[in-house]
C-alpha cells in the first residue's frame, strides 16, 4: 500500500501557521513528557516494581532460614523427678534454628517461574499503557494543530466577508448597488462571525484535552511533516506479523499464560515429600521441675509428607488447570482484538490516503473559482450570491482537506500503536519499568 500524501501542497497550505516559536514543542517532546510524567503510566510502573519484588520473595525459598526463640517465665511442675512434691522454678529458654530446604516438590522453582512471568507481563503492561497514552497525546497534539488551522481559515473567511460587505455597502451608499445585497451580505457576515466563535471554542476545548495528557499548555506546536506514514509496512500481512510479535497486550497475555502454567506446576508440589536440613542449638534453664541448665545441639535431615488433607491439594491442582485455560482464552481474545485493530487502522489509513489528493483538487478548484468569480462580480458578470457561495465553498473545501489531512496523519500513528511500535517510531525512550520487547514465540507456539 502506497501512502504518499500531497506533501508539497500541505506545506504550502499550512506554512503560514506552523512557524517554530522560541517555545516550540515537537510531537516527540510532547509524547516524551507524557511517558515520563503521566500518572497512569507512573501507576503502572509502580505496580511493575511491586511485582518484581515477588521474584525476590520466591527466590528466598532456596535460601536458609534462621530463627531465634527466647522465653522466660514461671513453671510449676509435678513429675517423677519432683515426686512426691511440686516444683516451682523460674524457667528460661533460648534456641536458635537454621533450616535449609533440600527438596520441596519443585514448589520454589515453580514460584520463581510464575513470578518472573508475572513480572514480564507487568512490564509489557507498562509498555502497553505508555503506547496507548502516547497515542492519546498524538491525537490531542494533532487536534490542536487541526483546530488552529481551521480557526485560521475561519478568520480568513470572515476577512473576505468583511471586505465584500464594505464593497457592497459602498456601492449601495453611492447609488450604484442596492441595499438588498447589503442585507444579504450582512446575513452571511453574521454566519462567518458565528463560525469564528465556534472555531475559537473548539480550539479552547482541544487545548484543555491536551493539558489533561501532557500536563501543560500547548505552545508553539510544530506540524510533524515526517510522520509514521513514512514507515508504514507495505502490506497488511506485514503489519499483522509485527503486531503478533511486538504488540504489548499480546506479549503480556502470553506471559500471563506462562505464569498460569508455572502456577499449575507449583500446585503439584503437595503431592511430593518435603526434605529439609535442620541444625539447632538450645539452652534451657530450670525446665520440667529440674533445677539447672540443659544444653542441646542437633543436626537433622527431616522428611515431611502429607498423606491426607481431605482432597484440598487435588482440588487446588484442578483449579489451576482451569485458571491456565482461562489465561489461554484471554490471550486468544487479546490476539483477536489486536488483529481487528490492525485491520481497522490499516483500512483507515488506506482510505484516507486515497481521499487526500481528491480533496486537494477540490481546494485548488475552489480557490480558482473564488478568484474568477470575484473578478467577474466586479464587472457585473456574477451575482452577489454566486460570490458568497464561492467563499463558503472554499471554506468547506479547506476544512474538509484539513480534517482528512490530520485524520490520515493520526491514522498512521494509530497503525504504529496497534503494532506496538509507536514509541519506537517516535524515537521516544520507553518507560524504565517496561521491558525490552523480545522476539517472542509465534502465537501458535505460545498456544
TrEMBL record:
GO annotations of cellular component type: cell outer membrane; efflux pump complex
Keyword Hydrolase: no
Major place of residence: membrane
Annotated keywords: Cell outer membrane, Membrane, Transmembrane, Transmembrane beta strand, Transport
Subcellular localization: Cell outer membrane
InterPro entries tied to this protein: OMP_efflux, T1SS_OMP_TolC, TolC-like
Pfam families to which the protein is assigned, alphabetical: OEP (PF02321)
Coiled-coil features, chain-numbered ranges: none
Annotated GO MF terms: efflux transmembrane transporter activity; porin activity
Xref: PANTHER family: OUTER MEMBRANE EFFLUX PROTEIN, OUTER MEMBRANE PROTEIN TOLC
Record protein name field: Outer membrane efflux protein
Lineage: unclassified sequences, metagenomes, ecological metagenomes
Amino acid at each position: 500500500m502506497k501512502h504518499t500524501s500531497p506533501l508539497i501542497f500541505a506545506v504550502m497550505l499550512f506554512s503560514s501557521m506552523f512557524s517554530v516559536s522560541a517555545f516550540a514543542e515537537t510531537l516527540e517532546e510532547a509524547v516524551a513528557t507524557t511517558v515520563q510524567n503521566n500518572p497512569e503510566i507512573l501507576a503502572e510502573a509502580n505496580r511493575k516494581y511491586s511485582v518484581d519484588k515477588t521474584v525476590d520473595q520466591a527466590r528466598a525459598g532456596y535460601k536458609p532460614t534462621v530463627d531465634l526463640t527466647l522465653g522466660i517465665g514461671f513453671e510449676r511442675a509435678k513429675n517423677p523427678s519432683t515426686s512426691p512434691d511440686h516444683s516451682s522454678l523460674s524457667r528460661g529458654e533460648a534456641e536458635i534454628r537454621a533450616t535449609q530446604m533440600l527438596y520441596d516438590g519443585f514448589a520454589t522453582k515453580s514460584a520463581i517461574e510464575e513470578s518472573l512471568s508475572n513480572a514480564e507481563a507487568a512490564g509489557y503492561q507498562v509498555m502497553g499503557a505508555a503506547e496507548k497514552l502516547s497515542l492519546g497525546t498524538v491525537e490531542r497534539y494533532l487536534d490542536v494543530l487541526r483546530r488552529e488551522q481551521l480557526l485560521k481559515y475561519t478568520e480568513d473567511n470572515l476577512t473576505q466577508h468583511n471586505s465584500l460587505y464594505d464593497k457592497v455597502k459602498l456601492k449601495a451608499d453611492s447609488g450604484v448597488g442596492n441595499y438588498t445585497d447589503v442585507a444579504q451580505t450582512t446575513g452571511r457576515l453574521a454566519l462567518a462571525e458565528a463560525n469564528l466563535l465556534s472555531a475559537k471554542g473548539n480550539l479552547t476545548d482541544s487545548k484543555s484535552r491536551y493539558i489533561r495528557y501532557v500536563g501543560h499548555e500547548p505552545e508553539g506546536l510544530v506540524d510533524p511533516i515526517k510522520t509514521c506514514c513514512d514507515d508504514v509496512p507495505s502490506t497488511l500481512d506485514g503489519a499483522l506479523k509485527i503486531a503478533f510479535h511486538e504488540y504489548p497486550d499480546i506479549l503480556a497475555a502470553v506471559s500471563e499464560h506462562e505464569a498460569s502454567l508455572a502456577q499449575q506446576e507449583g500446585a503439584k508440589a503437595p503431592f511430593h515429600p518435603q526434605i529439609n536440613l535442620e541444625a539447632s542449638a538450645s539452652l534451657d534453664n530450670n525446665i520440667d521441675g529440674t533445677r539447672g541448665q540443659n544444653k542441646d545441639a542437633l543436626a537433622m535431615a527431616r522428611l515431611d509428607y502429607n498423606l491426607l488433607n481431605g482432597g484440598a491439594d487435588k482440588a487446588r491442582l484442578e483449579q489451576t488447570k482451569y485458571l491456565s485455560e482461562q489465561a489461554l482464552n484471554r490471550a486468544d481474545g487479546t490476539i483477536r482484538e489486536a488483529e481487528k485493530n490492525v485491520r481497522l487502522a490499516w483500512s483507515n489509513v488506506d482510505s484516507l490516503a486515497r481521499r487526500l489528493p481528491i480533496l486537494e483538487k477540490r481546494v485548488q478548484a475552489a480557490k480558482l473559482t473564488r478568484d474568477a468569480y470575484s473578478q467577474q462580480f466586479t464587472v457585473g458578470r456574477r451575482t452577489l450570491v454566486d460570490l458568497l457561495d464561492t467563499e463558503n465553498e472554499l471554506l468547506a473545501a479547506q476544512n474538509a482537506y484539513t480534517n482528512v489531512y490530520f485524520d490520515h496523519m493520526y491514522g498512521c500513528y494509530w497503525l504504529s500503536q496497534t503494532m506496538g511500535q509507536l514509541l519506537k517510531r517516535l524515537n521516544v525512550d520507553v518507560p524504565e519499568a517496561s521491558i525490552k520487547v523480545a522476539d517472542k514465540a509465534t502465537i501458535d507456539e505460545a498456544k
